[in-house]
Amino acid sequence: MLQTELGTYEPEESDRPPSVYGLDGAIVVELRGDMDLVAYQRTVSLMDAAASGSEPLVVVDLSRVTFFDCSGISLLMRTRRRVRGRGGHLRVVCTDPLTLRMLRITRLTSALSPAPSLGAALRGPFDET
């Protein structure tokens, strides 16, 4: 929690639950704050539910993620496997240079298809690997 000048508390970004909503035939999951082991444990059941939905496209928006480690990669790959298992596609919205670097180093850029915006993620092209 962060204390403001007036003495009230506002939840930190990582204390807020992910937003999940449908948009243009896709399900969008907006993750926030740190994407670490604790966040993985709090988010995995939500991501599993999103991945098992009927929408052909699942978009994971990392625009509000402030820290991303191997737990985040594990969560994305788990979600991708589940979405692909039902014939769907996963796209990731990401512009953070460090997160994009991690995806390049782990050679997951083509599998996760990072897009610079939600609009770009919704338009495709969709991964076929």
Task: Provide keyphrases for this structure.
about 130 residues; alpha/beta; Transcription Regulator spoIIAA; five-stranded mixed beta sheet; two-stranded antiparallel sheet; about 40% helix; globular
Quick rundown:
With 129 residues, the chain is α/β, with parallel strands linked by helices.
Question: Overview of this structure, please?
Answer:
With 129 residues, this protein is of the alpha/beta class. The protein has five helices and seven strands. It has a single domain, classed as STAS domain (Transcription Regulator spoIIAA), CATH 3.30.750.24. 39% of the residues lie in helices and 29% in strands. The strands form two sheets. Strands 3-4-5-6-7 form a five-stranded mixed β-sheet, with helices on both faces. The N and C termini lie far apart (41 Å). 29% of the residues are buried.
Topology:
Elements: E1 2-3, E2 9-10, E3 19-23, E4 26-35, H1 37-51, E5 57-68, H2 70-85, E6 89-93, H3 97-105, H4 109-112, E7 114-115, H5 118-123
Parallel strand pairs: 4-5, 5-6, 6-7
Antiparallel strand pairs: 1-2, 3-4
Family: Belongs to the anti-sigma-factor antagonist family.
Protein name: Anti-sigma factor antagonist
GO molecular function: anti-sigma factor antagonist activity
Output the structural class.
Answer: alpha/beta
Under the CATH scheme, which class?
Alpha Beta
Strand content: 25-35%
Largest sheet: 5 strands, mixed
What are the low-pLDDT stretches, counting only 5+ consecutive residues below 50? Answer: none
Indicate the mean pLDDT.
88
CATH topology: Transcription Regulator spoIIAA
